[in-house]
């Protein structure tokens, strides 16, 4: 990962990398193993604890996990999350024994002020399809969304009218997740995968997010 020493430098990197993004799946895309990734921070120790969980898509069984801890090298600045989280995620990723087919990040992808969120950056860094599945909106607005599981509504830039992603209901009458493409994926394919990873409407978040979040917290508490 190309490091940034300032917000201005980070912005330049985002703008340069954005030109490399591809918003369609690879030919014959049939994912079998999905990666979930998350990072927990310990400000007192200045450490980032990254966790990657690989899940077999059909069975939803965890098939591999990896963790890594690194010093925090970039401050918390909204819109520049990748420069804070990605170094530790890369370290965890590099210790995996097998390569997943797609990654789901608890973050935004294209639904970002510069259209270059963590899911975009991670997809380019790891060289595979990546999906942003966030818990809240970073930018954009959503209109009416039906209450049933599977309902979706566009997440739109109010100034330009551009569609940035979708609000996706993974459970009846529960707040949606906010879906956006990262790299090598489109929104319909991403939505299908997220619903498969949140089967039966039991939980709001996909298993990738739930398990990676739990592993990162456990690693932090034990580290």
Describe what you observe in this structure:
The chain has helices at residues 7-18, 81-93, 118-126, 187-197, 207-222; strands at 33-42, 47-56, 62-71, 102-105, 130-134, 141-142, 152-156, 163-168, 177-183. The chain is of the alpha+beta class and 223 residues long. It has one domain (7-222): archaeoglobus fulgidus dsm 4304 superfamily (archaeoglobus fulgidus dsm 4304 fold), CATH 3.30.2170. A nine-stranded mixed beta sheet has the order 3-2-1-4-5-9-8-7-6, sandwiched between helices. β7 (152-156) and β8 (163-168) form a beta hairpin. The protein is globular and about 45 Å long. The two termini are 24 Å apart.
Keywords, please?
27% helix, alpha+beta, 5 helices, 9 strands, archaeoglobus fulgidus dsm 4304 fold, 223 residues, single chain
Q: Short summary of the structure?
A:
The chain is of the alpha+beta class and 223 residues long.
Topology as a string of helices (H) and strands (E) = HEEEHEHEEEEEHH
Largest sheet: 9 strands, mixed
CATH evolutionary superfamily: archaeoglobus fulgidus dsm 4304 superfamily
CATH architecture tag: 2-Layer Sandwich
- Tell me, what is the CATH class? Alpha Beta
Any idea of the CATH topology? archaeoglobus fulgidus dsm 4304 fold
Tally of helical runs: 5
Strand content: 25-35%
Tell me roughly what share of residues is in helical segments: 25-40%
Query: Structural class per helix/strand content?
Result: alpha+beta
Please state how the strands of the largest beta sheet are arranged side by side.
3-2-1-4-5-9-8-7-6
Query: Would you tell me the overall average pLDDT?
Result: 96
Rg over CA atoms, rounded to whole Å, is 16 Å
Which descriptor suits the 3D outline? globular
Number of E strands: 9
Low-confidence stretches: none
Distance between the termini: 24 Å
Number of domains: 1
């Amino acid at each position: 990962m190309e490091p940034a020493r300032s917000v201005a430098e980070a912005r330049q990197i985002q703008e340069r990398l954005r030109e490399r993004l591809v918003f369609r799946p690879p030919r014959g895309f049939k994912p079998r193993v999905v990666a979930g990734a998350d990072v927990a921070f310990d400000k007192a120790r200045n450490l980032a604890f990254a966790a990657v969980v690989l899940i077999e898509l059909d069975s939803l069984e965890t098939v591999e996990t990896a963790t890594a801890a690194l010093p925090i090298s970039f401050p918390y600045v909204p819109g520049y999350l990748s420069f804070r989280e990605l170094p530790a995620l890369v370290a965890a990723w590099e210790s995996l024994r097998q390569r997943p087919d797609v990654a789901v990040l608890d973050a935004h992808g294209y639904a970002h002020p510069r259209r270059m969120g963590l899911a975009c950056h991670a997809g380019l860094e790891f060289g595979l399809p990546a999906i942003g599945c966030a818990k809240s909106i970073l930018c954009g607005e959503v209109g009416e969304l039906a209450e049933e599981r599977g309902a979706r509504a566009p997440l739109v830039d109010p100034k330009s009218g551009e569609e940035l992603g979708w609000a996706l209901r993974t459970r009846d009458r529960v707040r949606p997740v906010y879906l956006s493409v990262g790299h090598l994926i489109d929104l319909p394919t991403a939505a299908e995968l997220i619903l498969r990873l949140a089967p039966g409407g039991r939980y709001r978040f996909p298993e990738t997010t739930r398990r990676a979040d739990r592993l990162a917290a456990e690693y932090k508490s034990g580290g």
